[in-house]
Amino acid sequence: MSATPNPQRRSEKSRQAILAASIDLCSEKGYGGVTMEAIAARAGVSKKTIYRWWPSKGAVLLEAVGQKVDSEAPFPDTGDLAGDLYTQMNRVVRLLTTPPFGPAYIGILSELHHDAELTRAVHDQFITPRFTAAVNRLKSAQRQGRLAADADLEMTVELLYGPLYYRYALRKPPHSPERTVKLVDHVLRSLDCRP
């Protein structure tokens, strides 16, 4: 007698196929050329299946980008604050400026002014968890006496990552690794960071 198929495993296989299809299509056609119909056809599922899990193509691509960032750009904590910031920031720049994930994310950002639900999802699923991870890394440095006790950690994250997003959003060349080193050094010096 054959075993009954596990619906959870089948659902996860479909979910991963949908995420992969969305990224592949974005790479081939650009963000504007991706449709829910095309994702469904490429993934071998119905549109109804996609809409059961995501309300829009932006939401599908957001999950695909977030999954990639989580796997390739976690926030390190080696005890060397500046080194950890260089490492993590350079990974993020590399990921978000390299196809297919860079074009997918810039497409998602372009829809934020028109899609309140996607805006909430970007903040809840993508920005807030990564912002929190950065603040927690700075708190660790603060507890070790490497950052001033009165440093505004949330503002520090904005000072560090704001220039990266500025260049990204305006389609300017990304910071080089050397420029990121200067950015991190400048921000940490302004915060009375101790070696």
TrEMBL record:
Regions recorded as binding DNA: 35-54
Question: What's the name of the protein?
Answer: AcrR family transcriptional regulator
Q: What's in the keyword line of the UniProt record?
A: DNA-binding, Transcription, Transcription regulation
What domain of life is recorded for the organism? Bacteria
Q: Which InterPro entries match?
A: Homeodomain-like_sf, HTH-type_TetR-like_transc_reg, HTH_TetR, Tet_transcr_reg_TetR-rel_C_sf, TetR_C
Which Gene3D superfamilies did the record assign? Homeodomain-like (1.10.10.60), Tetracycline Repressor, domain 2 (1.10.357.10)
Q: What does the record list as coiled-coil region(s)? A: none
Give every HTH tetR-type domain span. Answer: 12-72
Q: Which GO terms describe its molecular function?
A: DNA-binding transcription factor activity; transcription cis-regulatory region binding
